[in-house]
Design brief:
Blueprint lengths: L3 H19 L3 H8 L3 H8 L7 H11 L3 H12 L1
Helix pairs in contact: 1-5, 2-3, 2-4
Amino acid sequence: MFRDETIRCAFGVALRELRTRAGISQEKLAAKARLNRTYVGDVERGERNIAIVNIVKVCRALDIRLSEFFREVEKHLG
């Protein structure tokens, strides 16, 4: 069983990797997803538990499928 912190951290690492792979800053991702930049930073650091609505917004902003995003998260869960 994974601890909540472990899941949030894996999610954040996956988000950061996908964002940098897309070549965009936290600020640009936040603007495209209509989220606050500090919120995106908090999620990337594993400090925030992102809502499913915001996950969908992030995936659309990154132009990726939810399944692709969660495959990346799974890689970091081990």
